[in-house]
Design goal:
Layout (H helix, E strand, L loop, with lengths): L1 H16 L6 E5 L7 E6 L6 E5 L6 E6 L4 E8 L9 E4 L5 E5 L10 E6 L9 E4 L2 E7 L15 E8 L2 E7 L8 E8 L3 E12 L11 E4 L6 E4 L3 E6 L10 E6 L6 E8 L2 E6 L1 E2 L2 E2 L1 E6 L1
Parallel strand pairs: 5-9, 10-14
Antiparallel strand pairs: 1-23, 2-3, 3-4, 4-5, 6-7, 7-8, 8-10, 11-12, 12-13, 13-14, 15-16, 16-17, 17-18, 19-20, 20-23, 21-22
């Protein structure tokens, strides 16, 4: 017992003295979210919706930012958490979960689950049958490809104008910062993900891999996240995101950040996974 108290005190002291860079800490997240891999704020819900990654239950958590508690849990009856990596909304109260984590670039079961009318789930715990979209990449021919060509992991996506837009996390042994952008229809069925663009973030493979994405539907801004950076995309036309204005923000705080969403047009929510006694927090970032 004394040992556990000592660890808790050490964690509190570490939280109080660490340099958070440009981030403002809001809360140390509940234990259910220690492996948080995606967050989303949606129309019609006061809660911040969150998921955890591989080998956890197929559950979506409704997190109350005011009370720092889990108020809702929605379980997918027809879903499996192989490697859930991001969660996105469509602006109409529907949520989508990306089961497309693909570290070794060899998966053939890439899936996006859809949950309709999330605000209708009012019980503390509910279950539902999700819509299912599966896809493959039009330019992937080997599973896995050669190490220098491994850029088919996805940990970030948004929903816009009837399409899922997927941003790859580059796992190439010849890392040059390139994230690829693919497009998939927001329909049930199996589809080929169409490659429509690419962008070089930066060349440090430890700091420039895209781990989450979000879109602000009021201003049209898109945020891409890495462990220590955010890219804000604006002034684009259609879905030519990388031809718009791109601003890079150095966070001056490195941790396992894999979750981002817009609180409003001027502020981001960002969350990181708990690693040892570090991380496991919800932050704000003014932009």
């Amino acid at each position: 017992m004394k040992q556990l108290v000592g660890v808790f005190i050490l964690a509190i002291l570490n939280l109080g003295c660490q340099d958070l860079g440009k981030l403002q800490i809001l809360a140390s997240l509940p234990g259910e979210l220690k492996e948080i891999s995606g967050i989303e704020k949606i129309k019609g819900s006061e809660l911040l919706w969150a998921i955890t990654d591989s080998k956890n239950a197929a559950d979506i958590f409704g997190y109350n930012t005011k009370t720092n508690s889990i108020d809702r849990v929605i379980s997918l009856e027809n879903g499996t958490n192989v490697d859930w990596e991001d969660i996105a909304g469509d602006g109409n109260g529907n949520l989508y979960v990306g089961d497309f984590g693909n570290n070794r670039n060899k998966r053939k079961d890439l899936t996006i689950y859809g949950i309709e009318n999330v605000s209708n789930f009012t019980a503390a715990r509910s279950s539902t049958i999700a819509t299912v979209t599966t896809f493959n990449f039009e330019d992937q021919k080997e599973f896995p490809p050669k190490k220098k060509d491994r850029n088919f992991d996805v940990e970030a996506f948004i929903v816009k104008d009837g399409f899922f837009y997927l941003f790859t996390r580059n796992r190439s042994s010849h890392f040059d910062g390139t994230t690829k952008l693919y497009r998939v229809p927001t329909k049930q069925g199996s589809f080929e993900a169409e490659l429509i663009g690419s962008y070089k973030t930066c060349e440090d493979d430890d700091d420039c891999q895209i781990t989450a994405a979000s879109i602000d539907r009021d201003a049209g801004k898109i945020a891409l996240l890495s462990y220590n950076k955010v890219w804000i995309i604006s002034e684009y036309k259609g879905d030519q995101f990388f031809k718009g204005k791109i601003e890079k923000i150095n966070l001056d705080h490195r941790s396992q950040k894999e979750s981002v969403t817009f609180k409003n047009s001027e502020t981001l929510y960002i969350a990181d996974e708990l690693t040892g006694i570090e991380g496991g927090n919800l932050y704000e970032l003014p932009i």
